[in-house]
Write a structure and sequence with these properties.
- By secondary structure, the protein is of the alpha/beta class.
- Among the domains are: 96 residues, no CATH class; 260 residues, TIM Barrel, CATH 3.20.20.
- Helix content is 30%, strand content 14%.
- It has 17 helices and 17 strands.
- The strands form four sheets. Strands 5-6-7-8-9-10-11-12-13-14 form a ten-stranded mixed beta sheet. The protein has a three-stranded antiparallel beta sheet with strand order 15-16-17, with no helix packed on it.
- Helix 9 runs parallel beside helix 12.
- The longest helix has 17 residues.
- The radius of gyration is 23 Å and the shape is globular.
- The protein starts with 22 loop residues before the first strand and ends with a helix.
- 44% of the residues are buried.
- The protein binds iron/sulfur cluster.
- Iron/sulfur cluster (SF4) binds next to loops.
């Protein structure tokens, strides 16, 4: 396949400018700004403000000017350790995997003398005291940090990709680095395993975790309890069964559960499942009549696009797409990127190559992260880079889950509601991502679906609108909660959390999660 990678410096960048505009409802209906004040859901204005019946939210004036921007591959040769790496090596999945950056010494070898010593000391402190994920960065990912100049300490610290892929101790919140109710498996997925690695928490869909590894590890990983190797902070859960037995048990469950029509094949990252194994698993899914959607989860499409460009993978995906088409099943790849600068020509080539195999779609599920993508401009830049540059559909942005030491990344629900409104009207309706909260035990909820919001304590309440076969009869009446970062609360709210955290019985905190 001919290379379409270009390397160098981008010729233009997007800038936000103030402008008046209309907004678009989630169903795609255009609304003028004059119509906005009356929009209300569950007693809450769409900007998250509680309404008393007569109050109405003030219209906002989104500020963003769209300009098509050509993707440019950052030149890896600006980094001293990769000065002599040629394009053929760079495009090799094997070379990328063999040259991953896994520790401070390897980072130093790549960066040469670009970064001062205190950066490495900051990194060492993070790994010893906070990090829940091992350091594992593909060269592709490192190359998208400070993408178009040689990094120095300032640009490295400020860089959005660095902020979530290579956390440093000084990034973490000083006072509340963990929420008092943070937990390792914050979504309680393991409690919902039907067989090892198969989570069934929605009525018609399941999550199948095939592997517990990825080609790269993200600092904010929701599945930090299971995914990756041990860190000084976290002894990881391990699958007990052999992969072949676990996969067979998953198939048995799915054959016996015809109410499931949608399987998310994930991990970890399916880019770390040997291709013949993954193809065999998906092939078997395609023999189950009730399954209509299969989604393959791989951040590797962005972090290691070279994997998805390998001829054996492309040919295998063509076989799967052909079979899926014959059986009326839709296969999609779901990837995960949080910053526009990660979307490079190689990523676009991998996404478009996958689309050309005949699969239905490539979609992005990002995570909202402070200092990474918490502005309208950053979100829209990312969505347009995905959509226009790579043919990837912006699909979801999640609020960051409540894992330990994640408070410097997490945003309050109110901020997520504002961000959702701020991006309406700029993208086609079909490509306008929903910002969702993955509420523990409940699942994904659009951020405006909450039923109650205690702003002082940052407690949002949510309710289920459906039952699955695994729930008790009263499951729909239970209230589920998600919590804003304590540091974002007024002093009175922070004081309340301090008091509850100091209570040796923990009774109030326990009542919030039961
Ligand atoms: S790629 Fe996904 S599963 Fe792997 S570390 Fe990142 S967030 Fe976790």
């Amino acid at each position: 396949m001919a290379s379409v990678t270009t390397i160098g410096v981008p010729t233009q960048r997007r800038n936000g400018h103030r402008s008046e505009t209309n907004v678009t409802e989630l169903d795609g209906t255009e609304l003028s700004s004059a119509e906005l004040p009356g929009i209300e859901l569950n007693g809450t204005a769409l900007n998250g403000t509680a309404l008393n019946g007569t109050e109405r939210a003030a219209p906002r004036s989104p500020a963003y000017n769209y300009a098509f921007t050509e993707l440019v591959e950052p030149d890896w040769r600006r980094l001293p350790g990769w000065r002599d790496v040629n394009s053929a090596d760079w495009r090799s999945a094997q070379w990328q995997r063999a040259h991953c950056v896994k520790n401070a010494a390897q980072l130093r070898a790549v960066m040469g003398d670009l970064l001062p010593e205190f950066v490495y000391a900051d990194l060492a402190r993070d790994q010893a005291q906070y990090s829940s994920m091992q350091m594992l960065l593909t060269p592709q990912i490192v190359n998208t940090m400070v993408p178009h100049e040689a990094p120095d300490a300032d640009s490295f610290y400020a860089d959005p990709v660095r902020r979530y892929m290579l956390p440093l101790a000084s990034d973490r919140a000083a006072q509340w680095s963990s929420h008092p109710l943070a937990s390792r498996d914050s979504l309680h997925e393991h409690e919902m395993w039907q067989v090892e690695g198969l989570t069934h928490r929605y009525p018609t869909k399941v999550l199948a975790e095939l592997t517990s590894t990825c080609p790269q590890y993200c600092g904010h990983c929701t599945r930090m309890d299971l995914v990756g190797t041990w860190t000084p902070q976290v002894t990881k859960l391990r699958f007990i069964g052999k992969p072949v037995d676990r996969y067979a048990a998953m198939m048995e469950y799915l054959q016996a559960t015809p109410g499931v029509r949608d399987v998310v094949v994930s991990g970890g990252d399916v880019a770390n499942v040997p291709w013949p194994t993954l193809e065999h698993f998906v092939d078997r899914l395609l023999t189950i009549d009730s399954i209509r959607d299969i989604r393959l989860a791989s951040k590797g499409l962005v972090g290691l696009p070279q994997h998805w460009l390998q001829p054996a993978v492309v040919a295998g995906m063509e076989r799967l797409a052909r079979t899926a088409r014959e059986r009326g099943v839709q296969i999609a790849i779901h990837t995960h990127t949080n910053s526009a600068q990660s979307v490079t020509p190689l990523v676009a080539e991998a996404a478009r190559t996958m689309l050309h195999t005949g699969i239905r779609d490539v979609r992005n599920q990002g995570v909202l992260l402070a200092g990474v993508n918490d502005t309208q401009e950053q979100l829209l830049d990312l969505c347009f880079a995905l959509l226009d540059g790579a043919g990837i559909m912006p699909y979801y942005f999640y609020l960051c889950d409540m894992i330990p030491h994640a408070e410097h990344w997490r945003l309050p629900v109110s901020k997520a509601q504002d961000l959702q409104l701020s991006i309406m009207g700029f993208l086609p309706g079909f490509a306008t991502p929903r910002i969702v909260c993955d509420v523990p035990y409940l699942g994904k909820q659009w951020v405006h679906q909450l039923v109650d919001y205690d702003r002082e304590r940052g407690i949002t309440s949510w309710q289920k609108r459906y039952l699955t076969s695994i729930e008790a009869d009263n499951g729909a009446e239970r209230t589920y909660r998600y919590f804003d970062p304590v540091q974002s609360l007024p002093e009175s709210g922070q004081g309340w959390w301090r008091t509850q955290s100091a209570d040796p019985t923990g009774a109030v905190l326990e009542s919030l999660t039961s």
